[in-house]
């Protein structure tokens, strides 16, 4: 089955709005095994829209429209597509009651324009909108179909999931089951590693990369959900075999969600001391509902004096090794845990740029610390082609990864340990500092 | 002049990548006075691409392509478009040297495929890529033009600004001058207020809304930059007359940038005590280069004990009024300033949800404090239709606005003052608490 996605709205052509609907529908259609051949954005112009629909309906089996279902005079998608598919529209009393009720509840009155929204297909079918006033529509002629959904992303997604997706699954006579693996690691290398597994018809697997991690979404089409789940599990195993514990979780919103859940499971609490990330790590942790169970205190220690006063870094250590150094990261992490009475402390000190680097510590150099029990683990990050936002994002991601490994009871990879007892020993700090210089 | 934007890449049709290029180019073309009539995304398929180009070149004056200029076999945009515009490609020695040099510097060797990238138009012109290996191309036939740029957003934007935009301005015989106003306030009401000013041919004005603020971009086309600037200034004045000091700055990345600059100008420093925003405010402030001049200490006081220990909130005050209350916000702000030795302290305590609200403090209730000198100003925010991320984003935005007003020496609108001396007085705190209950 082939499809095209059509976004209708002059505001899109002016660049006033970023079109996120097309990407969402592309992924969803791909999972249904429907090939998207073209995506188009058209303005609210009846002539151009009609020309477009007449061309497009002969190129593929399904046209998926978003937008142009509003009450204003230039919202013409429904009328135009109906005509192209040999259908007409009729006034629907129950939709009209819904619309007037909706307006009444929000203390407004309808205008004559609003009646347009209550028009529904005669031969085709209306699609109920449970989250707004504009119903969707389905048209069909000689086996070629068109579906119309609202342009507001939340309404579109809801209508897609509640009505359109099930309708298409029924036509395809299948169910879908998905699992999303979350994987730590650099984008291009990871993509290369798993490339062979991404070329499969069923289950499909697609990779979406973000800063410091990727998402691998596996989707199986099957006659039953149980069978789909089994197919997903078997296919997921291939990724686990290849990637090991770089796969840190399934079906979560991000590393912070896994970290908070793991801390809860183990009955641990965590504290942060952030310099160049400036609150970004605490912000990510507290974005997770229920994080207050495991996170109570965060320190943004931007100045050297703040590092000393809030988390007990020795001014002499800063003077000797530089504020961006392994010994300072180690003392910050230990200090954060102690000041908060937390089991785990994590820290970041680095040069986010655009200025402030030197030969030993160019912009993009970050030291991370992660303390638990009697040991603190230090890691160095060198972000190439650094810009301020990227350095901060990578540093926060790396810090959350260290925290997760400690919460899991593992020794984090690529780190150097220092004993808590040795944190004030010149010899031990010298040694720790040496390890990272020249890396 | 009319145009279409064409994004080439199967990965876009699969939804693997969000297409941000189309929005960027839509805005830029609109500013040049070029009407974008359609945007399309096409896969890497030579037949379908050729069909498309042959249709599209007769519909408008200019086709703007991004993507499909890579070295692999399925990158066919240049060959295909050349043929449609009656042009051919020729191997360009200087481009090839650039490519081999680029590979050598990154320690790699070129493959035969890479030679494709050194092919340039015979009749048209190549467009130098200063930020990558793939040159762009310009084709022209009987007054109809096509321009090809890389798909990587950073390379595309650079080529657009360095070469394509100047070329189009020259053809249009004009220069462009732009100014972007930053405006605080609710999105829909603001858009309604300025709607008449958005319908102008030259200068154009477009509004882009974000959480708690909008951006109004004014662009004038003129024969000289000086004339364009004058036109922009005159048109901007209309917005200032309408919106007053809701316009907080021009040509900045966000409220945090204006705040940091204002603090620097006034020689002030600032500190934060965050509960429900969990570091988001500190993160936004420290995202500004040079913020270390004005920001040294940030406290994420998620637990009640943290509010007491780090910024001196009295446990009795929490017990009496609730942790989400005006008295607690006031003590947090005063305590943040004092603990950091900063002139200004800001604070947030609220119910971000999804759970945790009660009748007096439903999810979405946030108290903000802003202290300077002998006074702390408290404000209450009630976010309707709250979700956790939205509540946090609105609270951070409101806190930054309070801080900016204090830095400017103004009394922030919609706040209740409390004297520093009265922060431990039961009577004064009772009174402050009363003002906000039932709002």
Walkthrough of the structure:
- 2 copies of one chain form a homodimer.
- Chain A has helices spanning 10-13, 21-31, 46-56, 77-84, 93-105, 153-172, 187-193, 225-243, 255-266, 280-286, 304-311, 315-321, 326-340, 388-407, 426-436, and strands at residues 2-8, 35-42, 62-66, 89-91, 119-121, 125-127, 136-141, 144-149, 175-184, 204-210, 213-222, 247-250, 270-274, 295-301, 344-350, 365-372, 375-382, 416-419.
- The first copy, chain A, is an alpha/beta fold and 439 residues long.
- The first copy, chain A, has a 6-stranded mixed beta sheet, with helices on both faces.
- Chain A is elongated.
- The interface between A and B is large, with 66 and 66 residues.
Give a short synopsis of this structure:
The structure is a homodimer of 439-residue chains. Helices cover 39% and strands 25% of the residues of chain A. With 439 residues, chain A is α/β, with parallel strands linked by helices.
């Amino acid at each position: 089955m082939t499809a095209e996605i059509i976004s209708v709205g002059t505001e899109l052509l002016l660049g006033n709005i970023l079109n996120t609907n097309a990407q969402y529908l592309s992924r969803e259609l791909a999972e249904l095994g429907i090939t998207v051949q073209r995506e188009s954005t058209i303005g609210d112009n009846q002539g151009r829209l009609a020309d477009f629909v007449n061309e497009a309906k002969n190129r593929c089996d399904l046209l998926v429209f978003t937008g142009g279902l509003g009450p204003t005079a230039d919202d013409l998608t429904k009328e135009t597509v109906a005509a192209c598919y040999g259908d007409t529209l009729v006034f629907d009393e129950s939709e009209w009651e819904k619309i007037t009720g909706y307006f009444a509840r929000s203390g407004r009155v309808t205008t004559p324009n609003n009646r347009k929204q209550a028009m529904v297909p005669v031969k085709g079918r209306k699609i109920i909108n449970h989250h707004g006033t504009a119903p969707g529509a389905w048209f069909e002629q000689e086996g070629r179909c068109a579906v119309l959904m609202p342009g507001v992303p939340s309404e579109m997604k809801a209508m897609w999931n509640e009505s359109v997706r099930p309708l298409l699954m029924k036509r395809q006579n299948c169910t879908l089951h998905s699992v999303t693996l979350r994987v730590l690691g650099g984008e291009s290398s990871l993509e290369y590693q798993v490339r062979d597994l991404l070329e499969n018809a069923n289950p499909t697997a697609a990779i979406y990369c973000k800063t410091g991690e990727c998402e691998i979404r596996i989707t199986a089409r099957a006659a039953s959900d149980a069978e789909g789940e089994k197919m997903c599990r078997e296919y997921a195993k291939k990724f686990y075999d290849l990637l090991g514990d770089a796969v840190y979780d399934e079906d979560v919103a991000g590393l912070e969600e896994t970290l908070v859940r793991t801390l809860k499971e183990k009955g641990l609490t965590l504290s942060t001391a952030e310099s160049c990330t400036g609150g970004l790590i605490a912000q990510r942790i507290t974005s997770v509902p229920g994080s207050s169970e495991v996170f109570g205190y965060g320190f943004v220690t931007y100045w050297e004096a703040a590092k000393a006063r809030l988390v007990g870094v020795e001014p002499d250590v800063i003077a000797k090794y530089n504020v961006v150094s392994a010994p300072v990261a180690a003392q910050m992490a230990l200090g954060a845990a102690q000041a908060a009475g937390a089991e785990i402390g994590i820290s970041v000190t680095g040069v986010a740029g655009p200025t402030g680097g030197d030969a030993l510590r160019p912009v993009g150099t970050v030291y991370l610390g992660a303390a638990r029990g009697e040991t603190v683990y230090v890691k160095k990050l060198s972000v190439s082609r650094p810009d301020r936002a990227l350095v901060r994002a990578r540093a926060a991601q790396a810090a959350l990864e260290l925290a997760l490994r400690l919460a899991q009871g593992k020794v984090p990879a690529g780190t150097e340990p220092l004993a808590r007892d040795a944190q004030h020993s010149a010899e031990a700090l010298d040694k720790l500092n040496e390890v990272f210089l020249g890396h």
